[in-house]
Every structure is written in structure tokens, then in C-alpha cells.
Amino acid sequence: MTDSWIQSAGLAISGTLLLIAMVCAGWRIVKGPGSPDRVVALDMLSLLGVAATGIAVVVSGSTAFIDIALGVALVGFLATVAFSAFIERGSINEEDEE
User: Residues near 11 by Cβ (< 8 Å), separated by ≥ 6?
Assistant: First the structure.
């Protein structure tokens, strides 16, 4: 009985902290002083999404959420790389610079 209570309390605390972190990352995306800050906040938001799907795996017991977490992690990584390259070069296409 105490193990399930501890797990429930831990999940509630984890969910609350994830929600607070998501709000902070969203605030940094909206009010970030520069583009690099917004990209880092977007990467953090995707990482928090993966953590939220990890909590969903524990709550539901379904392993299908692991595939969703993997997909969110891959898309978040690729988006961060693309935005970083865009910030560094200033354009999307390399042909525009020539």
C-alpha cells in the first residue's frame, strides 16, 4: 500500500514540476531576448515533452508511448539543428549565399 502511495505522490510531483518547466520554457520562447535563446528553449520544451511521455508510460502502463517519446526526441533534435544552422548562416538555402 505504501509503495503505490509513494509512486502516486512521485508522479504528481513530477507532473507538477514538468508543467512548471514547460511554462518557463514557453515564456522564454515568447520573451527570449534573442534567437539562440528561443532555440534553446524550444529544445528544452521538446525534452520536457519526452519526459511527459515517460510519465505517461508509467501512469498508463502502455509501452506505445515509448515510440511517441522517441519520435518527439528525434523531431526536437532535428528542429534544433535546423534552427541553429539557420541562425548561423542567416538563410535556409546555401544557394542564396553564392
Answer: 55, 58, 59
CA–CA dist 83, 42 (Å, integer): 10
Q: 42 near 79, Cβ under 8 Å?
A: yes
Q: Which amino acid is at 78?
A: L
Residue with the larger pLDDT of the pair 45 and 93: 45
Residue 18, C-beta contacts closer than 8 angstroms, at least 6 positions apart: 48, 51, 52, 55
pTM of the model: 0.79
pLDDT in tens, 15-44: 999 999 999 999 999 998 888 888 899 899
Question: Given its phi and psi angles, is residue 62 left (phi above 0), alpha (psi -120 to 50 degrees) or beta?
Answer: beta
